[in-house]
Amino acid sequence: MLGGVIEFRIDRHSGVSTYLQIAAQVKQAMRMGLLGPGDKLPTAREVVEATRVNPNTVLKAYRELEHEGLVEGRRGMGTFVTASLATDAAKADAPLRQDLEQWMDRAVDEGLSGDEVDAIYTDVRGTHY
Amino acid sequence: MNAGPVRAEHVAKHFGRTKALDGCSFSLPEGSVTGLVGPNGAGKSTLLSLIAGLAKPTSGEITVHGTAVRGRMHPDVALLTQKRPLYDQFTVREMMRAGAAMNDRWSDERANEVLDLLAGVDEDAKVGTLSAGARTQVAIAVALGRLPKVLLLDEPLSDLDPLARDETLRIVMTEVAERGTTVLLSSHLLTDLGDVCDHLLLLDEGRVQVSGDIEEILDEHHVVVGPAELELGVDGVVDSSRTARQATALVRGGTVPEGFQAARPDLEALVMGYLRASRTRRLARR
């Protein structure tokens, strides 16, 4: 399903608009290198089949991504990724990522919950960015 | 000129002295999915039957794709009424043949496609023996067999269990994706509406209260919360409530009252605000 590329997960209780969730998930997949230039995004029909969202919402998300210069709609063909957001730092064997993996292992060993880890991450991120 | 698949101008419908609809004006964009909401008796079903051409407005005009609806079934419109009018003694197959006989434009292929979707419906079963979900699926198949450009659904989800509700919405969303059909559906199930509708039409006492793109409507409303002793003191308060310590209000327009914290409402909070306000108004008149 979805041409085997990506599948959207819609959280209906998050309070975040569905189209923003879809756009964010495409960008996340691009950053992780799962989607790159030339890849075709699932058609609205395919997304409807998998998630029951309104096809207009899917198209709205794609238009948003097109505005940001990340994808391009080609008439009768579909929507294609035109940019790359993948950074080496996001890859599984990148040093920064491995540092974080180690840190996360320690957090698990010390019995921290996911919420506590998120709180620490958000706090530290806030002091640097 | 009269662009847009469905357009209502100053539409009124009176039953004796009761004004079911009064001064209704709105238009629906092509291919949009609009949620029609409002309290019981707001005029939702009346509006749907006027658009379908089953009844004539007392005054005003409704046009569908530029042609006026004049009190007979418009060929581009299909309406699924709350009663799901089907012949219980017919088999599903016979029901489809009846659909073909009753409509000038009819696609067996399209109707069968809808029946085959999901778990599929047994075509030799009598309509009267079907589950509520399968019955709705048959009624939708009859509606979509007409190849409508405008699909009107009156409470399509009532009486359905969660799985059948999900499947019904899936059929409708697939229709929108494949054929770009304009959909207007009434429902009390706000959470279900949230992710299938892109437009909203909120009726109250026969009048349009809110109409337009849901994201834009949510953007122009705030839910504000503040200490109880503060006055709201702004225009556009839709609905407000107070506890001993806290005042909460739904406000339309850009101004946030001083000392209050504002957040964007979700669809459910917005519609609930309008419904509560409507009830308060009606109680005040008693």
UniProtKB/TrEMBL annotation, chain A:
Gene3D superfamilies: Winged helix-like DNA-binding domain superfamily/Winged helix DNA-binding domain (1.10.10.10). The keyword Secreted does not apply. Keywords: DNA-binding, Transcription, Transcription regulation. Residues 16-84 form the HTH gntR-type domain. InterPro entries: Tscrpt_reg_HTH_GntR, WH-like_DNA-bd_sf, WH_DNA-bd_sf. Pfam families: GntR (PF00392). Signal peptide: none annotated. Transmembrane segments: none annotated. The keyword Protein biosynthesis does not apply. PANTHER family: GNTR-FAMILY TRANSCRIPTIONAL REGULATOR, HTH-TYPE TRANSCRIPTIONAL REPRESSOR YTRA. This is GntR family transcriptional regulator. It comes from Lentzea cavernae.
TrEMBL record, chain B:
The keyword Chaperone does not apply. Signal peptide: none annotated. SMART domains: AAA. The keyword S-adenosyl-L-methionine does not apply. CDD domains: ABC_DR_subfamily_A. One of its GO terms (molecular function) is ATP binding. It holds the Pfam family ABC_tran. InterPro entries: AAA+_ATPase, ABC_transporter-like_ATP-bd, P-loop_NTPase. Residues 6-230 form the ABC transporter domain. Keywords: ATP-binding, Nucleotide-binding. This is ABC transporter ATP-binding protein. The lineage of its organism: Bacteria, Bacillati, Actinomycetota, Actinomycetes, Pseudonocardiales.
